[in-house]
Amino acid sequence: MSIRTLISTSIAVLAMLPAMSHAQSELQAQPQVEPAALPLAAASAGALRALDYHMNERIVQVPAGENGEALLETTVFRPDGAGPFPLIVINHGKDPGRPSLQQRDRFYHMATAFVKRGYAVMVPMRQGFSRSGGSYREHGCDMTANGYTQAEDVRATLAFARQQPWVDADHIVVAGQSYGGLATIALGTQDLPGVRGLINFAGGLRDDSDRCAWRSQLVSAFAEYGSKAKLPSLWMYGQNDSLFGPELAQRMHDAYAQAGGRGRLVEFAAFKRDSHGMLASRDGEKVWLGDTEQFLKEIGMPTRVVFDVAPMPSPARTGFARVDDVAAVPFLSENGRRAYSDYLTKMTPRAFAVSPSGAWTWAEEGEDPDGRALATCSAKSKEPCRLYSVDDYVVWNDERLDQAEKASATAALTPAPAPTASAAVASTAPTTSVGSTTVR
Fold first, then answer.
1. Among the four 129, 219, 248, 425, which has the fewest Cβ within 10 Å?
2. Helix axes 143-161, 179-187, angle to 10 degrees
3. Beta bridge partners of 200
4. What sign has the CA pseudo-torsion 105, 108, 113, 118?
5. For residue 13, which phi and psi values (nearest 5 degrees)?
6. pLDDT per position as a tens digit, 380-395
């Protein structure tokens, strides 16, 4: 997701049930939401998701737009303590469809790596996205203008951050993925006090509408940004990126560098099914961390691990059955067993959930596949769902759910939102991977 959200989100729903959009559900305890962070309307809509207390996650409202009237829903992660901490701002991409239906991006895996290194992390949802105020602003096929407009909200986030006592205002780095990468490089044309460098992960914007030469428009946009660039940058694109492949990435970078921009391009090998989703994957750190640490050292930002972040608890392995024993999975129809066989071919991290009513769901890749599988399954089931397997092992036991467990499971889950009926013909492909989810 989006992240949310980084490789193409794909949700396949059997024809006998209504379609459902992707959703993330963090099943953590001890949420930490600032009292004034979210408007009451958002809370009453049931849209709040529990936050990760392991990294002091909370949501703040950042003023943006004319006179600061548009409040940006911004996720903050911080180490323990008062700070001040060096800061990284991470900017999200754009999913197909209405931006207001896009899930809150967290870039959880990347945020974890930076919190360990003593950073505070801010992930702002720009105007019109998720539960941020204002309206989504676009300029059609004018990629240069699109980047500049989105950068305005990032600049507002930086202005807010520099006023916070927990932020080291002299040690800031800005990163972005997909559309957020385009906005990040556009931002680098401005004077940015305290910002030492920019990181562009698979940056760009795709527009498949008629008569939009979006590839050439992107090349022109990066040439414009390069001619006015004020900061060093790191660019990372993968060989099997479904949106911005190696040839286009090289053209964009060459245009930027030839116009005067300072940026090193890293072309990494194919990553899983689609390297555009690398940043959302728990395995992506193996790809991006080395070059990112080198860049951070070059611009005077810290890289040493100084905090221990407790890992999220994993479901316990049981001896109920082998993970590949399809016949052992309870409650499934023949269609369900075929789906479980298909699930066994999916990437890890992954999770499969079932319920006594016969509902089943699987989720792969991205953030929290366990929570996504449970949330989506429960939204379609008359009885509480439980995880059957995670990654390559079974977590199921044959005990019946008691009433307390049923109540706890029901209270912990947020149903996935209904999808928009309109197609995003002229938008980017999904930029945050929450994995593939199938429901019956």
1. 425
2. 70
3. 176, 235
4. positive
5. -120, 130
6. 888 899 999 999 999 9
Give the HSE-up count for residue 39: Cα atoms under 13 Å, Cβ half-sphere.
11
Q: Which residue has the tokens 């950042």?
A: 62
C-alpha distances in Å from residue 100, one per residue of 128, 135, 379: 6, 9, 21
Determine the Cα angle at 53 with ends 50 and 56, to 5°.
115
Contact partners, residue 424, CB within 8 Å, separation at least 6:
95, 96, 97, 98
Tokens 């992107």 identify what position? Answer: 218
Indicate the DSSP class of residue 279: G
pLDDT, one tens digit per residue, over 260-293 is: 999 999 999 999 999 999 998 989 999 999 999 9
CA dihedral for 301, 305, 310, 311, sign (positive or negative) = positive
How many degrees, rounded to 5, is the angle at CA 89 between CA 247 and CA 270? Answer: 30
SS3 368: coil
Q: At residue 167, what are phi and psi to the nearest 5 degrees?
A: -105, 130
Instruction: Give the integer Cα–Cα distance in Å for 358 and 400.
Output: 15
Place of tokens 């996935």: 416
The DSSP code sequence of 7-38 is SPPEEEE-TTS-----------SS----TTTS
- Is residue 375 helix, strand or coil? helix
- The per-type count for the chain, helices as H runs and strands as E runs, is 10, 14
| pLDDT band, residue 335 (cuts 50/70/90) | very high
Name the maximum alpha-carbon separation found in the chain: 66
CA distances from 208 to 123, 202, 220 (A): 27, 18, 17
Rounded CA gap, 26 and 13, in Å? 22
CB-CB contact of 179 with 93 (8 Å): yes
Nearest-angstrom CA–CA distance, 436 and 434: 7
**Residue in this structure with the two tokens 């369900």, named with its chain if needed:** 336
Asked whether the beta carbons of 261 and 226 are under 8 A apart, the reply is: yes
- What is the DSSP secondary-structure string of 382-435? SS--EEEEETTEE---SPPP-HHHHHHHHHH--PPPPPPSS--TTSPPP-S---
Work out whether strand 386-390 and strand 393-394 pair parallel, antiparallel, or are unpaired: antiparallel
Closest alpha carbon to 387 in 419, 416, 349: 349
The topology (CATH level 3) of 29-298 is Rossmann fold (3.40.50)
Domain with CATH 3.40.50.1820 in the chain: 29-298
